[in-house]
Every structure is written in structure tokens, then in C-alpha cells.
Amino acid sequence: MSTADVAERLKKAVELIEAWESGEDAPTYPQLETLAYEVYKRPLALFFMPFPPDEPRARAEFRSLPDADLAHLARETTLLIRKARAFQFALIDLYGDRNPVAQPIWRQVRVDPRGNVARQAALVRHALGVSLEDIRQQPDDDSALKLWRRAIERSGVHVFKESFKQRELSGFCLWHPEFPVILINNSTTKTRQVFSLMHELAHLLCDRSGISRFDDRGIDDLPPPDRAIERFSNALAGEILVPMVDFAAATAAFAPDRASDEQFSALAARYRVSRSVILRRFVERGAATMDFYLAKDREWAEQRRETAGGGGSYYNTQGAYLSEQFLREVVSRYSRRLLTKAEAADLIGVKPRNFERFEELVLRGAAA
Question: Do both 155 and 249 map to the same domain?
Fold first, then answer.
């Protein structure tokens, strides 16, 4: 944040904040508490360290966005990245130096952005253990999202969700040799979350952290190696969700330029993806132009209402935001007295007095 941003939050003069930063003046202890807990979301002790902590910088860690976008990450997005990193540390605290999954997916499947996308997507689907028939049996998009999410978690990747205030971002992933995590934007439709989930998984299979937009803006501005990985991640996600062989057979008589929105919706429901993913597959097959795709995508974007629904339980929502495997492990260790309530609450980021409500979610099987 700029000094003006901080001054506005504290309702103080910019000159005072600048004096604090230069060392000419200093905040009172109550002001320091406000800075720590409300403004910067940092431990108070950090302000007494001799040097700022050495932390990964977005420009070094995320190479899937152009520098101009990375320079303008919202404060809330930076906090979410820090939160995801905290979950990684919590996983290390729980499991030590080894993922509990005997054969994580990144050790089963080695991908190559220069290789055959269809063949690699088939390997990923096989490793996840989810078939097209499994997807078609799901009663709705939410069930399909849960199916994919649980499959990815069983493969060793922990998946978290959060409502992003920076709405143009679809999600991000943080690579780690034992505990990679994905965090997807919950402020949108379930079908769009499914694609985001697969896109971030593709990044991890390339041994890369990534942060992604819903659209393709900026991909051409990336350096060639990063551009290749971003395009490969899109292609791999599309092929996992909508295999071209099955898609071509199902749409042999389908004319994209003459199809109604309802026909696109019916086709999207076959794979439990968005209409935009379906139309993108037509472009990749050479049955629709990119101009047609962009025009329809804008039209459908205007139709979408990406506002959060009201009336839900806070605990149900927060339970769904947490990795199901992670939450179950914390609750299991607490019930076996391997963790105190305070330790368990700290791991999942809630106050101790609220932990038992999350324990109830796990016992009822309602955490996913």
C-alpha cells in the first residue's frame, strides 16, 4: 500500500505516515496494534525485527501474468497468497516432510508442454480416477465440482476456495515438492471453478506456481517459455474436461454459429463445464472463429450474475473453503488428543471458540 492508502485507513495525515517510515516519528503502541492487525495483517512482533522478513515476491513466484498485472495485484489478493502459504506451513506441521499420499499425481504423471496434449490429458484423468461417465452421472454442476476437487485432493494436492475481491482472477496455485496447494475463486459459477481447478492443476504438473485470469488477456505479453506453459495449461484443462474425441462425436451435426444459447447449455451440461469452454473447443477444432468466440463470451459474461448467494451458514461456507482432507486431518488429530483445541483452531485459521462448529461439519460429512 502507498502511504496515502495507510493514512486513509488510519484517518491520519500522509505526512505522519511518512515520518513513521523515515524514523522521524513513531506510532503509539495502540496505533502499532492497528497497523499490525487491521492494516497489514501481520504479527505485532514483525515490527520489532531488525530487517523485513525475506518473503517470495509475486514477480518471482508467478510468471503466468504479465508484469503490469503483477504490479497491480490487489491488497486482498496479496493477503490470499499469504494465507495459502500459511496453509502450506500448516500442512508441513501436520505431516512433516512427506505428503500422506503414497504416490502423488505429480510423481505419476510427468507433463511436457511440447508433447501431445490428448495423451497427457488421458494420463491425468486416469490418475485422478474420474471418467466421463462419472461426470455425466452427477446431478448438477456443484456435484461435479466436488467430484473433481475430491479426486485432486486424493491425488495429493490440497484445494482451498475463497471469494476473491479481484474478480478477474480465477485462482492461483503454489508449487511445493510435497505440499502443493490450489486456491480457486469462489465468486463465480461452479463450471468456471471447475476449469480454474484444472488449469491450476496443469500449472502444478509443470512444477510451477501460477496465478490466472478468467480471460486470455496478457498471455501474448509473457516471455515465450511462460506463454507456452500458460497456453498448455489451458489446452490440458480443456482436454481433461472435454476430450476432443468424445466432443467431436457428440457435435458432428452441431453448427456453433446457428446454435441457440440453450443448445450450448445442454452441451455444456454433458461435461459439466461452462458454455465458454464448449465454444473454445469448437475454436480448437476449427469449427468456429476466435472472433465469434470472443463475441459470444462477452455476451454470456453480461448474462452471468457472479454475486454470492445469501442466507447460507457461515460455518458451512467456511468449511467448503477449506481443503476437505486438511480439515478432516486436523479434526482427527484433535479428537485423538494429538492437538489441543487452540492448536487445531490455529491450523485452520479460526478462533478456538469456533472450532467445534467445524468439527461438527466433518462429523456430519458436510465439509466439502
Answer: no
The residue among 331 and 69 whose pLDDT is bigger is: 331
Q: Name 216's Cβ contacts closer than 8 Å, sequence gap at least 6.
A: 234
Judge whether 313 and 320 are in contact, CB under 8 Å: no
Q: Where are the alpha helices (DSSP H) in the chain?
A: 3-10, 14-22, 29-34, 58-61, 67-70, 75-95, 105-108, 117-128, 132-136, 141-154, 190-205, 224-241, 244-250, 261-271, 275-285, 290-303, 314-321, 324-335, 341-348, 355-364
Residue-number span of the structural domain to which 295 is assigned = 243-307
Do 173 and 97 share a structural domain?
Answer: yes
C-alpha cell at position 47:
515490527
Domain endpoint, select from 212, 241, 270: 241
Q: Domain check: are 120 and 213 in the same one? A: yes
In this predicted structure, which of 299-313, 320-334, 346-360 has the lowest mean pLDDT? 299-313
Task: Return d(Cα 361, Cα 322) in angstroms, integer.
Answer: 11
Query: CA separation (Å) from 151 to 96, 104, 212, 251, 319?
Result: 23, 11, 22, 28, 18
How do residues 95-109 score in pLDDT, each as one tens digit?
A: 998 999 999 999 999
Q: What's the farthest any 2 CA atoms get from each other in the chain?
A: 74
pLDDT digits (tens, 9 = 90+) for 180-214: 999 999 988 999 999 999 999 999 999 999 998 88
Task: Name the residue among 272, 273, 145, 167 with its Cα closest to residue 214.
Answer: 167
Angle at CA of residue 53, ends 49 and 58, nearest 5°: 155
Task: Tell me the one-letter amino acid at 285.
Answer: R
In a shared domain, residues 196 and 77: yes
**φ, ψ (nearest 5 deg) of residue 191:** -65, -40
Beta-carbon-side half-sphere exposure of residue 232 (alpha carbons within 13 Å): 25
Cβ burial of 328 (10 Å; 0-12, 13-18, 19+) is middle
3-state secondary structure of 159: strand
List, for residues 285-298, the tens digit of each pLDDT value. 999 999 999 899 88
Domain shared by 96 and 142, yes or no? yes
Number of structural domains found in the chain: 4
Cα pseudo-dihedral 266, 123, 280, 283, rounded to 10: -120
Residue 59 within any structural domain of the chain: no
